[in-house]
Design brief:
The complex is a heterotrimer of chains A (213), B (102) and C (339). Chain B has 102 residues and is mainly alpha-helical. Chain B has helices spanning 6-26, 30-54, 59-89. Chain B has one domain (6-96): Helix Hairpins (Orthogonal Bundle), CATH 1.10.287.3510. The longest helix of chain B is centred in the last third of the chain and has 31 residues, at 59-89. Chain B starts with 5 loop residues before the first helix and ends in a 13-residue tail after the last helix. With 339 residues, chain C is an all-alpha fold. Chain C has helices at 2-37, 53-63, 74-90, 118-139, 143-174, 179-185, 195-208, 220-223, 233-257, 275-302, 308-335; strands spanning 100-103, 106-109. Chain C starts with a helix and ends with a helix. The chains are: A mainly alpha (213), B mainly alpha (102), C mainly alpha (339). Chains A and C meet through α2 and α3 of A and α4 and α5 of C.
């Protein structure tokens, strides 16, 4: 078996597995299972990216998608604990229509890909150039930090804005006095002390006890 | 040099895109709709990297980094909105979240 | 081709067996050492000086009833320990143990593979290990396990960022993401110019491996244990095994990335590639690893456990600024001394 057939076989496995996992994301009832299936998709796609010799992006996909985004999803599910309602109807009424549209769209993509009308001019970053830079990571760094530094900085501003926005949106405004079960220990103690002081202050004149200021 | 041919990578990207799109159109659970959007982004990423490698242009790979940034920002803000929504309405069913006023 | 395959197989076997072989004596050593520090004896009954105690414990755990709680998500409950254990073994495939060795006309690196994104690979695997914890807590269908897994996974996600930040400094100085290359670049161990980064890394590694003083899942009495409270028998042993494998991995990483690893530079520079130099390098590396493991256990015997809010505050209000400072220091050094 030469290396080309081996690579093709690996690609076939990774591609089929990622599509199957993607379908599981869309079809499974329990959102937690869906999130795990999405992790499966991300892992197999990382394999595909390694086949394409984009090692940095493969690692970045796992770190950002599996390590951050999907964990956030799981956290939201666990924190909200909105009734999973697995028995409830999971799909919209217009599902058959949507499937038809999806199949048509996929057919369209296949025709377009087969027609290979998508040929661009080959660029400067040949494998030789990449090897000269010292590998995929260094080459990507060269392009990103030399040619596209400003977009990169703008992207960091976007991330900061997203963090601030997320905190503002998800912050819980305390409208009612919180019950003791929601407080931390120190807060609860403080509240107890406060209450006791107040009671003491109310009862003090009646008892006629003078207190030191 | 790209094994197998570029077309297969493009088809994989297209398949993920379509599956994600179907998820957005079909599912009623808001969280799963969000996951389907991530699927769409992943499909786009595969296409980007495939083209980048086939056409010897690093820009495609650099762009995926921006796509990842957008995905992360979208997840953070989107999930914050979902948390606020779930506190307010106590449902994540897209069909029931249909009023424009809170 | 066959030679390559054989090399790969041998290296994978070693990378797989080393943690399995080292963990049982490590647990025994920890218990003996803790005993000594706390003025008691420690396990000394099974085998000479109690060396076989871990084995006896493992047999006991294997003999326990295997319980899946009622109402648990059965498949995820079974999957969770593996989700934690598999990444901690996968990470061994990039750990640099020694230097290159020339033997019988071949040069063999004493590391399983030299990946050009080795540092990112390790970070990716630590980020995947969180799923084991989240799933264990969620699938148990128990509020204590759920709360414990929320605590532990939030802790791991937060400290993972600090792990990354401390490694950024090293990557900036070494100019590479490959671990053997980072080891090779260290004329002076990076712990000296980047002591801030080394401090952040050690704290983050302690928290990532759920070790004292960040070992909230160990707090049976005050927090009803953690994410693995519903696990029994060999499934529980899996959590235990992965914790110790991670601890060993962290020790190897600290030794390789911050303490110069198995690279007896610059004294033995001309001898590199020969058997004595390789042997000496291996001794250096193993000594550093054991010193760090001793430090780990010493901390456990000395420091009290952090409260959860203190843990998070420490991460975001102390380690994050220090990590950013580390990046700044590394950049300045790169432009001046390391230019």
């Amino acid at each position: 078996m030469n290396s080309e057939t081996l690579l093709t076989l690996i690609f076939a496995y990774l591609a089929v597995a990622s599509v199957v996992f993607a379908m599981l994301v869309v079809m499974m009832r329990n959102p937690v299972h869906c999130a795990l299936a999405l992790v499966g998709v991300v892992f197999h796609l990382a394999g595909i990216l390694i086949l394409l010799r984009a090692e940095f992006l493969a690692a970045a996909h796992i770190i950002i998608y599996a390590g951050a985004i999907i964990v956030l999803f799981l956290f939201t599910m666990m924190l909200l604990n909105v009734g999973v309602a697995e028995r409830a109807r999971q799909f919209h009424v217009q599902a058959p229509l949507a499937v038809v549209i999806g199949v048509v769209l996929l057919f369209e993509f296949i025709v377009l890909t087969g027609a290979s009308i998508v040929v661009g001019a080959p660029g400067l970053h040949t494998p030789a150039w990449v090897a000269e830079q010292g590998g995929n990571v260094q080459a990507l760094g060269q392009v990103l930090f030399r040619d596209y530094l400003l977009p990169f900085e703008v992207a960091s501003v976007l991330l900061t804005a997203a963090v601030v926005g997320a905190i503002v949106l998800a912050r819980q405004k305390p409208k009612r006095p919180r019950s003791s079960s929601e407080m931390g220990v120190s807060e609860w103690m403080a509240a107890r002390v406060e209450k006791a002081r107040k009671r003491e202050a109310e009862s003090a004149p009646r008892r006629g006890v003078t207190r030191n200021p | 040099m790209i094994i197998p041919a570029l077309e297969y990578y493009l088809l994989l990207g297209a398949a993920l895109f379509v599956i994600g799109l179907l998820g957005v159109l079909v599912r009623r659970n808001l969280l799963i709709v969000f996951m389907s959007i991530e699927l769409i982004l992943l499909g786009a990423n595969v296409t980007f990297v495939g083209f980048a490698v086939a056409l010897n242009n690093m820009l495609g790979q650099a762009f995926v980094i921006f796509s990842l940034t957008v995905a992360a920002a979208e997840a953070a803000v989107g999930l914050a909105i979902i948390v606020a929504l779930a506190r307010h309405r106590e449902t994540l069913n897209v069909d029931e979240i249909d009023t424009l006023r809170g | 081709m066959t030679e390559l395959v054989i090399t790969i197989l041998i290296k994978s076997a070693i990378a797989f067996v080393v943690p399995l072989l080292v963990v049982p004596p490590l647990i025994w050593g920890e218990r003996r050492l803790l005993g000594r520090i706390q003025s008691r004896v420690g396990p000394n009954r099974v085998g000479p000086m109690g060396v076989l105690q871990t084995l006896a414990d493992a047999v006991k755990l294997l003999g326990k009833e295997d319980i899946v709680p009622a109402g648990a998500d059965r498949s995820l409950f079974i999957l969770a320990p593996f989700l934690l254990l598999v990444p901690s073994f996968m990470a061994w495939s990039v750990v640099p143990i020694g230097t290159e060795l020339t033997i019988l006309g071949r040069t063999i690196g004493l590391y399983p593979t030299d990946v050009n994104v080795g540092v990112l690979y390790i970070l990716a695997l630590t980020s995947v290990a969180v799923y084991g914890i989240v799933m264990a807590g969620w699938a148990s269908n128990s509020k204590y396990a759920l709360l414990g897994s929320l605590r532990s996974s939030a802790q791991m996600i937060s400290y993972e960022i600090m792990l990354g930040l401390s490694l950024v400094g090293v990557v900036v100085l070494a100019g590479s993401l490959s671990l053997p290359e980072i080891v090779r670049q260290q004329q002076v161990p990076y712990a000296i110019p980047l002591f801030v980064g080394a401090f952040v890394f050690v704290c983050a590694a302690l928290a990532e491996t759920n070790r004292a003083p960040f070992d909230l899942p160990e707090a049976e009495t005050e927090l009803v244990s953690g994410y693995h409270v519903e696990y029994t028998g060999w499934r529980f042993a899996f959590f235990f095994l992965s914790e110790y494998a991670n601890m060993l991995l962290a020790s190897f990483l600290v030794s390789a990335v911050f303490l110069g690893g198995g690279w007896p530079a610059p004294l033995l520079e001309p001898m590199i590639g020969h058997l004595p130099a390789m042997f000496l390098a291996l001794v250096f590396m193993v000594t550093k690893v054991f010193l760090f493991l001793f430090f780990y256990i010493w901390l456990r015997a000395t420091l009290p456990r952090f409260r959860y809010d203190q843990l998070m505050n420490f991460c975001w209000k102390v380690l994050l600024p220090l990590g950013l400072l580390n990046v700044a220091i590394a950049t300045v050094l790169k432009l001046t001394i390391y230019a």
